[in-house]
Amino acid sequence: MIQALTRTIAQDLDHWNNSPHRKPLLLRGARQTGKTWIVNAFGASHFTHVARIDFMRDVDARALFDGNLTVDTLLRSIEIYTGVPVHPESTLVFLDEIQECPRAITALKYFCEDAPNYHVIATGSYMGVSRHEDASFPVGKVDMLTLHPLTFTEFLANAGQSALADLIREGDIASIPAAFSPRLADLLKTYMMVGGMPEVVLAHLNGASAHETRAQQLAILDSYDLDFSKHAPTRLLERIRLVWRSLPAQLAKENRRFVYGVVRPGARARDFEESLMWLDDYGIITRVPCASALRTPLSSYADPAVFKLFVSDIGLLGALADLDPAIVLNGSAIFTEFKGALTEQLVCQQLVAQQYSPCYWANPQGHAEVDFAVEQYGKIYPIEVKATVNLRAKSLHVACDRFHLDHAFRMAMTDYRDEGWIANFPLWASIGLRAYLKQTD
To answer: What are the residue boundaries of the AAA domain, all occurrences included (predicted)?
Structure first.
C-alpha cells in the first residue's frame, strides 16, 4: 500500500530552505493539488516543530492578524494559539489557506523585513491570493512556487519507473531505447485516464478500478462547483458554470479556438470575459493565446482576445467530458477518439508544468496552424501535436520558413528522431522538453 506520493517540488522546497536569501514562501496552486500535504511532509522531515494555522478551519485564528502586524507579537500569538514553540531554526511556521485571511497575506512583508531568520510558508489558491482588494500583496517580499497536478514523470516515478522518469526529466530522450516505447505508451494512456490529481493517482496506484478513479474525479469536479457557489459573485455564477461545462465541446472542435457561441448561442466576449478571468484566477484553466508572429519575445505577439482553453488536469477533462475510461485504456483508442483533444491537453499540461507560457499560431492566409509555440534561450520553437503516428509537417514547414526558425518539434506516438530542422518527439517525452533544449542548445 502506497501511503504518500513523491513530488519533485520537494527539491524546490529544499533549495528554498537552504537559500541564504530566503524570504517567506507562498506556495500557490489549484484546489486539491496537494499543497497542504507537501508542506506538512516537508515540515515533518526538516523541522522539530510545525506551527500550523489553517485559516479555512481555524476561523478564530484570523483575528490574530486584525491588529498591529508587529512580527514579535504575531510570532508570540502563533505560538500560544498552536501550542507549538516557535524558534527560528527548528520551527516551520505554516499559514495554510492564507487567502481566507487577507491581513496574513500583508503580514508576509513584515516576516520578510523583520524576521528573515524564521521559516515561514503560506499556501493559497490563485484566486484567493490575487483577488483580495482589502489586502496589500507583499510584492518582492515573498518567494513563490506553484504546485501543479502530477506530471507524467512524477506519475512514472510513483508507479515504480523512476529510472525512465529520470531520463525523461533530464532531457535524455535520445538515450531511451526504443524497446521501452511500448511500456511508456501504455503508461501514458493510463496517465491520460487517471490524470495528475494526487488523490486520484494515489487511489489508482493502490489498485482502484477505472470506475473508482472516475468517481473521485467527479467528486473533485463537484467540489469545484461548490467553490463556484461559495466564492464567485452571484451575477457571474451561472456564466462561470456555462464556460466550465463548455470546455469539452470547445476542444472537440476541429479548430480548438475558444468560441463564445459554443458557450451560449449569440454570446459575445463581453458576456463571458469576466467569467473567464474568474476561472483563470481559480487556477483550473489555461489560456493559450494566438500569436500573430512566431518572433521573440513571443508574449508581445500574443493576442489575448483569440485563444484556446485547456483544463488544469487531463483526468478532470476526461471526467468533465464524460469520456468512458475504457476508450482511454483500450488499445490505441486514446489517440483517435475526441479528435486529439486529450493529446493537446496532455502536451499543454506538461508545457505549463515546465513554466512555459505556450502560444499557438494560425496562418491568416491559409490553413496552416501550429498547435503550440514556446520560447527558450531567446529562440522560438513551434510544436505540432499528433494524436497518432503521423509524420507530415506541412504547418511546421510553413511556420519555420515564414519566421526563419531553426528547429521545430513534432510530438506524436513515434520514437525519437532528430532530422535536423525537426525532431520527432514522443508524446511521453513532452515533459522533458525544457531539459532537452538545455542539453542540445
So the answer is: 22-156
